[in-house]
Amino acid sequence: MPNYNLNVLQPAEFEDLARDLIQKQFGVFVESFTTGRDSGIDLRFATINGGKSIVQAKRYKDYSSLLSNLKGEADKVRRINPDNYYVVTSVGLTPRNKDDIKELFAPYIKDTTQILGSNDINNLLGTFDDVEKKHYKLWLTSTNILQSIINKEVINWSDFELQHIKQQIATYVPNKSLEQARNILSQYNYVIISGIPGIGKTTLANILLYDYLAHGYEEFVNIPGDMDNASKLYDPHKKQVFFFDDFLGANVFEDNGSGFAQKLISFIRVVKKDNSKKFILTTREYILRDANIHYEKIRNENIELAKCVLDIGSYTKTVRAKILYNHIANADLPKEYISEFLKDKGYRWIIGHRNFNPRVIETYIDKQLWIQVPVSEFMNRFKEFFSNPHMVWEMAFENLKPESQYALMVLASMGGEVSIESWNKAYSHFGKLTSDQLQLKYDDITWNKTVKILHDCFIRTGKYQGLIVVTFHNPSVRDFIANYIEKSAYTQRLLLEGAFYPEQLTSLYDEFLSQNMPEIFRSNNISLSDSNLEILRAKLIEFLSNNPESCKLSRTGISFIKNSYSKTAFLKSFADRFPSYFKKIQNQLLSILLTQITEGNNTDFFQRIQLIKRMNWSNRETELRDVLNLLTNEDKDIDDYPELLKLLHETGNIDLIDKTPFLEKMEEEMIVDMDTMINGFADYEEREELYLEIEKRLPDGVALSRAFSHLQEIRDSLEDIPDENDEDSYRESSYDNEQEDFIIDRLMDSLLQ
């Protein structure tokens, strides 16, 4: 029978263990309840005869504390009046202890077998192997296992200490990467764990190490950087685990000489054939890419067959919640800080944040940066770390070659997803125009190396019907790059002068300071230095005077198409980013603006309307009226009417509508639109909303009777019931999300126990 210390589990973890054991022992489904709502119930299940049984999980260090708590529960249990009451506790119990508890909860505890102490739990764990395996923290932190690990021969690692092991196990949350790495090791006997900074590469490696040492491996060998050490310490008669952390360099690829690659490959070949050996390596993905370029032997050997890439996208919401929970639970935070953490379920914001990263949590919580923060500001500061997680990327970026750094800055200036071809053009153009200042290499060989180095760490790519699309690996990467650019007016100037696409003026910069923007936009906007406004104006006129390409892509289902350059859309985007400056230089652009507004086509009608709104028409009311009259009589899509009518109202020109001809034409267009666009109930609701919006913006007393009469005829021909499959899918998804939120809330609430 195992003898686990059950108090290594946090309260929520212990309750999960109790649930799993009860379910296994009785073959029933056990319900869980969030803390604060139980009124004496942690778990509940129904017996075969329909009786109601409730279970309470009590994690305490001694019997006196347990008994004191149970006395407070007795009245609650009587109010619930269950058929059976069970107590599952981490405390070791004597027969007398069990009798006392049974008497306290009579008649709901009918037999002392309904009271499970630590010995009973250990007995059940010995019986139910799958439950024991699921709760890995129990067996990996057990005294016997820990002592077994510590007593193994450990070479070249001074940090291999009991406390260090306990800390890592306490905060680690198993996820599919652990099983993936295990499978790779089982197949190849070695694994390369790669990923972005802060994702948990070394932690995963250590968990794997502890696991193997706990299951019969005799010796652990840490390789400090020289493959000669590994070869010398290789013992064919021992079960050994070798570990090479950052085997290609900690922050940047380090050339260890021509012999390094051959020694590494040779060692891997030996390990692959010897099942008594395991070799675990970690590296940042961009460094591995650089090494593949530099070392032909590594490239030819294709050692990446055994690569396990850690991706934050594989961390489910529950996994994220457990990572956060473990760090908070093991940090000895004062209760007032935990209460602030739980307040209004603020932790949900962190769990769902696009920049979620274990290193951010570790930095703020484990490194105790919170100590200097007042309780009232604890969560605000915590959230700031996620909104500005630059510390995770700074060192990796600083150690890149200038070509890679500026390639990332050029990409950041281009906006969201772009084709790799467009990125190449933009970078090459930038390299040529800044050759005197930066002397960057931008030939094809250098470019290909740069992309490979950045891939899977700073950027990711996908192929869509022959088009290779590139974007940042994680939004926080672009946030960091943007912040880096914002700090240097000189870098901003170079990027503006070297811009190849018009989007490079409007995708990154903003005339407002980022801290004054709503939080949702902060990471996407940086303030442009005033000293660069003249360069911005000159570049704007250059693009307007020519016919540049666009780097913007539009999604079409699961693929992308390249957008054509639209001068109107570019002007509108510029006016959005720099509204004050746009009005300031408006007169210099007037001829171009009026041409775009009055000579455009119906495909950019909406953009033209928006451009009019962003211009300053003071003392030019007559000119504005002429422009609006032209647009009113122009052919346009039915979807454009609401914005036009709104603009006519706002400028006091609604009288431009010649009611009878205008209405007749518009109603005809609406009827054609109805017959074309409405093919089902969902289409009907969407178009009805549009038509009502149009009618609302017409002059008082004007109605669209004929159009709405036709709409009613279409409505009568449709079935009222929406598609059942869609509804079921929505309900199922909603239910799953609610269940996951419930589990997370219950987990977090247990922090106050």
Characterise this structure:
By secondary structure, the protein is α/β, with parallel strands linked by helices. It folds into four domains: 130 residues, Trna Endonuclease, Chain: A, domain 1; 172 residues, Rossmann fold, CATH 3.40.50; 78 residues; 166 residues, no CATH class. It is built from 39 helices and 18 strands. Strands 6-8-9-10-7-11 form a six-stranded parallel β-sheet. Strands 1-2-3-4-5 form a five-stranded mixed β-sheet. Helix 15 packs parallel to helix 18. The protein is globular. The protein starts with 10 loop residues before the first helix and ends with a helix.
Rg from Cα:
33 Å
Main sheet, how many strands, which sense, barrel?
A: 6 strands, parallel
% residues in beta strands: 5-15%
Please indicate the count of domains: 4
Determine the N-to-C terminus distance: 29 Å
- CATH class category label of the largest domain: Alpha Beta
What's the short version?
The chain is α/β, with parallel strands linked by helices and 753 residues long. The protein has 39 helices and 18 strands. The protein is globular.
